[in-house]
């Protein structure tokens, strides 16, 4: 039994349309699901990823409209690492971000660091150590430069350089030293690291809510039992329509989720039009009329491009 790498990472934003503009238009990811928060259905939950919405490519956001900016600190993820194919791709993104008004900085190892509109820390890294690419199609992003999925994440913690046994002994991570870990699945891997905490954080726009690891469906209840047997407080299984989920906090304070690989984001939507219509959790479908009145419309740029092309040829 082993985890299959990353499933998704979920953040908070104060503006859903800016979220779509940055991640779907500027970064070229595909908006694969437009739905609402299971626990607070008045809030959007947006999912971005590759063409199919494959685990390992997925970034998601809860929108709490107008939320003040948060601050990463103790027990919080502070940086997400996105893969690109080459050093040439790094150069492409440096220019594209600059043209859009987002300054960036290259480190000595070639990593490109920048922030999104909410202040979330992002890094582009050359993905050259074995992850199969998970890319989306965007007319302004050449395929050779497209983002290839998530490669890693870094969090703040106390005792950052002390090996975390829950990761290694229970969840199957490999400890590499100096607060660095690697999770290897059958097809994908993920880099995870702790840095020494600088301050206590504050949740808000631009902060990370949780990180989810991917599980084979048949192993999900076994993972729940393993975490419980290790002394962790783990939730019951939550049906999230596109996957089942369990949640627990690891000892450094970060909220972990283990999510199943199926049924996937095409379970209730044609693969050709993922993310274009508002999809509601089964438990909230009776609220559709109310939510369609109260939620601010969010435009999907892919749908808008297709409509414009159709009008141009009409």
Automatic annotation (TrEMBL):
Residues 302-314 have a biased composition (Basic and acidic residues). SUPFAM superfamilies: Glyoxalase/Bleomycin resistance protein/Dihydroxybiphenyl dioxygenase. Residues 291-314 are annotated as: Disordered. Gene3D superfamilies: 2,3-Dihydroxybiphenyl 1,2-Dioxygenase, domain 1 (3.10.180.10). PROSITE patterns: VOC. Residues 5-139, 149-261 form the VOC domain. This is VOC family protein. It comes from Conexibacter stalactiti.
């Amino acid at each position: 039994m082993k985890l299959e790498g990353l499933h998704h990472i979920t953040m908070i934003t104060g503006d859903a349309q800016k979220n779509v503009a940055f991640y779907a238009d500027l970064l070229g990811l595909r908006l694969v699901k437009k739905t609402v928060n299971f626990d607070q259905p008045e809030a959007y939950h947006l999912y971005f990823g590759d063409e199919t919405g494959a685990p390992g490519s997925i970034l998601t956001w809860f929108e709490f409209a107008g939320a003040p900016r948060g601050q990463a600190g103790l027990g919080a993820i502070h940086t997400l690492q996105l893969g690109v194919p080459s050093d040439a791709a790094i150069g492409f993104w440096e220019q594209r971000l600059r043209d859009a008004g987002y300054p960036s900085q290259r480190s000595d190892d070639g990593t490109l660091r920048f922030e999104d509109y909410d202040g979330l820390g992002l890094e582009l890294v050359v993905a050259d150590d074995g992850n199969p690419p998970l890319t989306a199609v965007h007319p302004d992003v050449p395929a050779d430069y497209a983002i290839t999925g998530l490669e890693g994440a870094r969090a703040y913690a106390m005792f950052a350089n002390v090996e975390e046994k829950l990761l290694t002994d229970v969840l199957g991570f490999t400890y590499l030293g100096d607060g660095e870990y690697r999770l290897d699945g059958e097809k994908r891997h993920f880099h995870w690291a702790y840095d020494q905490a600088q301050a206590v954080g504050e949740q808000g726009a631009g902060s990370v809510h949780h990180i989810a690891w991917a599980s084979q469906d048949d192993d999900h209840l076994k993972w729940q039992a393993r975490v419980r047997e290790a002394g962790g407080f783990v939730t019951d299984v939550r049906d999230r329509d596109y996957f089942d989920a369990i949640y627990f906090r690891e000892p450094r304070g970060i909220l972990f989720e283990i999510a199943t690989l199926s049924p996937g984001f095409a379970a209730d939507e044609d693969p050709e039009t993922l993310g274009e219509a508002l999809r509601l959790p089964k438990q909230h479908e009776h609220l559709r009329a109310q939510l369609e009145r109260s939620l601010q419309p969010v435009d999907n740029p892919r749908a808008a491009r297709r409509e414009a092309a159709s009008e141009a040829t009409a």
